[in-house]
Amino acid sequence: MIEQKGILFILSGPSGVGKGTVRKSLFEKDTELRYSISTTTRPIREGEKEGVDYFYRSKNEFEEMIENNQLLEYAQYVGNYYGTPRQYVEETLDAGKDVFLEIEVQGALQVKENFPEGVFIFLSPPSLEELKNRIVSRGTETESLVMNRLKAAKEEIELMDAYDYVVVNDQVSRAVDKVQAIVKSEHCKRERVASQYKKLLEVSES
């Protein structure tokens, strides 16, 4: 029996590209994937559960995690910290489960520094015009904010070289199929399975 560790997959891309939609559709089709649960200093809300929605920590506890390199990435939003805990990811991978992290580009680059063995997937819009249409259709952004997001998206697309794969999100179902194909192919990579198969040879020789 060949036993493999899980793989950390990082899905990233510009704001408005549809990361959340693709990730949710993927999880509906693939129940074996595990979503990376974040740690936060924001208060727990009604209906949320520790270890399901987030790991809730005090500001001091979170800053200790930063100091002790216990986070694969972190950021601060509206006065609260959010981050990806290394321990949860590593324990889940050791249990043979794939972990999926959906994150902004800057966070993905932090993960690449701290966990380079992850598989990095850049979700790209079909065009900047299409990305603009998606952001505008949300109806939540002012014109100046839309232009700022597009400027940021151009800069993020230029960082594509830091990724292993690029998937164009022209149609959600097609993008999900491509991500699933990446997951399958990564599990068949020689460098991942070679050591396990060599153990089979050792058993047959003994």
Automatic annotation (TrEMBL):
One of its GO terms (molecular function) is ATP binding. Residues 6-184 form the Guanylate kinase-like domain. ATP binds at G13, P14, S15, G16, V17, G18, K19, G20. Pfam families: Guanylate_kin. Transmembrane segments: none annotated. It is found in: Cytoplasm. PROSITE patterns: GUANYLATE_KINASE_1, GUANYLATE_KINASE_2. It comes from the Bacteria. Keywords: ATP-binding, Cytoplasm, Kinase, Nucleotide-binding, Transferase. SMART domains: GuKc. PANTHER family: GUANYLATE KINASE (PTHR23117:SF13), GUANYLATE KINASE-RELATED (PTHR23117). Essential for recycling GMP and indirectly, cGMP. Belongs to the guanylate kinase family. NCBIfam families: guanyl_kin. This is Guanylate kinase.
